[in-house]
C-alpha cells in the first residue's frame, strides 16, 4: 500500500519516492504527495522527474483492492524503471484550489442541517447535494458561510478507531460516500467550533485561506434533494 504523505501534510508540493512498478496500468510509488480521486475531490496532476526525463501526470487514482495509488502518465510518456528514485512535483495552484474548496464544503455542512447525498469539487467552484425537503435561504447561507471563513478558524485532523465511528454514526454527514475505513482507524477533520466529520481529503490549515465565496444556484434535484453551488469570488 502506498504511503500517503498528503494525509500528514497537505502542503507538500515536492517530494522524492522510489518506483514500485511502472507499466501500462500506471506508476505506483512507495509514497506520494498526489491525492487520488475520491470523495468528490479530483485526483492530483503534476510531474515526475528522474535523470534527464520529466513526464506529466494527468490524473491520480486509487486501486480499491490493493490500496495502491496509481499515477496516470500522459499518453506516450516514458516510464521509469522499478526502484528508480523520482521527484514528484504537484500542480500546486490546482491542488490548493481543491483544498480551499474542500474545506469550504465542510463549512457548508456546518450551516445546512441535512445529510449530504453527493458533492463535487473543482478549482473554481464546488457543490453539495443535501437531503432537504425545502431549499434554504440563499442570502442567509451566504452570510453565515462567509462569516465562518472570515473567522479564520483552525482546521486540524485526528485519527479515531473504526469502533468509535461505528458507535457515533452521526459523525458521518455523507450518505453517498462512505468514510475511508478498513485499516482500523479513520481520519477526522475538525474545524474549531464549526464542524467535525470523517474525511480522507486535503484541507487548508485555517478557514481564512478559503477567501470570499458566494452561493450560486440552489437547485431542486428531487423531492428531497437540494443542490447548493458555491463559487470563489475573485
UniProtKB/TrEMBL annotation:
Source organism, top-level taxon: Bacteria
Protein name: Alanine--tRNA ligase
Main location: cytoplasm
Single Gene Ontology BP annotation: alanyl-tRNA aminoacylation
Residues of the Alanyl-transfer RNA synthetases family profile domain: 1-234
Keywords attached to this entry: Hydrolase, Metal-binding, Zinc
UniProt keyword Coiled coil present: no
Subcellular location: Cytoplasm
Source organism: Varunaivibrio sulfuroxidans
Gene Ontology cellular component annotations, sorted alphabetically: cytoplasm
SUPFAM superfamilies in the record: ThrRS/AlaRS common domain, Translation proteins
Keyword presence, DNA repair: no
Cofactor: Zn(2+)
Pfam families xrefs: tRNA-synt_2c, tRNA_SAD
GO molecular function per UniProt: alanine-tRNA ligase activity; aminoacyl-tRNA deacylase activity; ATP binding; metal ion binding; nucleic acid binding
